[in-house]
Design brief:
By secondary structure, this protein is mainly β. The chain has strands at about 5, 10, 20-25, 35-40, 45-50, 55-60, 65-70, 75-80, 90-100, 110-115, 120-124. The strands form two sheets. Strands 2, 4, 5, 6, 9, 10 and 11 form a seven-stranded mixed sheet that branches. The chain has a four-stranded antiparallel sheet with strand order 1-3-8-7, with no helix packed on it. A hairpin with a 5-residue loop joins strand 5 (about 45-50) and strand 6. It is globular.
């Protein structure tokens, strides 16, 4: 099965940008419905963005126009480019992959089987 490792988190001022990466091993990420999620202290985990194997994407309303999800097949890596960051974007960010056999609509509501360990994003 696939293993996921996130990187790229850090501290940034409001209005700044960060790019998160999620590197996969054990399988080819481009074959999966992939997603980014976040969880702030005391809050439930929320879906941020998703990208299907055909490249179609979806976003939470709170990040539309500011975040972009993409993938690099050659690097077997998923990205989340975050711009115009706000304090409310502060959270632990996780990447996830649905089962390779998943055939439904790829969104953050899909059943995700594989998760990374998370990377912290702090916006002040």
């Amino acid at each position: 099965h696939v293993q996921l490792v996130e990187s790229g988190g850090g501290s940034v001022q409001a209005g700044g940008s960060l790019r998160l990466s999620c590197t996969g091993s054990g399988d080819t990420l481009s074959s999966y419905c992939m997603g980014w999620f976040r969880q702030a202290p005391g809050k439930e985990r929320e879906g941020v963005a998703a990208i299907d194997s055909d490249g179609s994407t979806s976003y939470a309303d709170s990040v539309k126009g500011r975040f972009t999800i993409s993938k690099d097949k050659a690097k077997n890596t998923l990205f989340l480019q975050m711009s115009n960051l706000k304090s409310e974007d502060t959270a632990m960010y996780y990447c996830a992959a649905a089962s390779v056999t998943f055939v439904g609509t790829c969104s953050t509501r899909a059943p995700f089987n594989y998760w990374g360990q998370g990377t912290q994003v702090t916006v002040s």
